[in-house]
Amino acid sequence: MSAIFYYLALPFLYLLAILPFRVLYFLSDCFYVIIYYVLGYRKKVVFSNLRNSFPEKSENELKKIQKEFYHYFCDLFLETFKTLTISKKTMLKHCSLDSAALQLFEELAAQKSNIIIVMGHKGNWEWAGNTFSLCCKHQLYVIYHPLSNRYFNSFLYKMRSVFGTKLIAMKDTFRDMVKNRNELNATAFIADQAPQPETAYWMNFMNQDTPVFTGTEKIAQKMQYPVVYVSVKRIKRGYYTVGADLLTQPPYAKSEGIITAAHTARLEQDIREQPATWLWTHRRWKHKRA
């Protein structure tokens, strides 16, 4: 059944990928009406997350952010599939690396320093990976959760590796990083997912008590790699710029939570600057501290 569903969906996905951007965004506007007004996809979850994160904002301000988020969410969905057919030139036109970030990555490459990249589900993180692979000397590895449907998992891998990015299944992260340590590489972690509360580091994030993954910090300490925070800012519809800051660098103290708190605080800063471009449908606060 999974194979049948995949092969039925495949022509539609490639049709989306070949559409001109003008048509793609018209289609996105149609999807927005259906998802927001007809289906109401996770509207209660999104609004609850926004209300708890921005208690200082009025109901009208929150509803405005919510609508802007759903517009962005539909754009993001279609932009991701555009990766299948987009050219290198067009990719870099729509998602560029700012000069400070490019200089930072060039300096780290000149030092032959492998790095850990940490970021959130903000902006178009998929396009940011493409841009990094096109512009930087480091081989990019992205940590991901393999899909249960092996056909769509293979499709996802192909789509994400169009411009040279490679993927590592989450369960193989440390093993593969050790195996790859002799090549110049960067390993990217998406650090805003919801971990199990008993293994998490708890801190205040977006005005709420929040469990945060500690895996990035532990691996950085074991590998003694610098940690670079990457931000993706939406300039206008269909256009993004990628920034980067050197967050921490070895040698690392053994105290817990320093790296985790640093990248989480930077993500919050980014979200507050552009709240509509973070993934508010995610049930980020479903766990409570014991």
Q: Could you list some keywords that capture this structure?
A:
290 residues, alpha/beta, seven-stranded mixed sheet, 50% helix, 19% strand
Structural summary, described in words:
There is one protein chain. The protein has 290 residues and is α/β, with parallel strands linked by helices. Helix content is 50%, strand content 19%. The chain is built from 11 helices and 9 strands. α3 (43-53) packs across α4 (59-82). The longest helix has 24 residues, at 59-82. It is globular and about 55 Å long. The termini are far apart. The model has no long low-confidence stretch (mean pLDDT 94).
Summarize the structure.
By secondary structure, the chain is an alpha/beta fold. The chain contains eleven helices and nine strands.
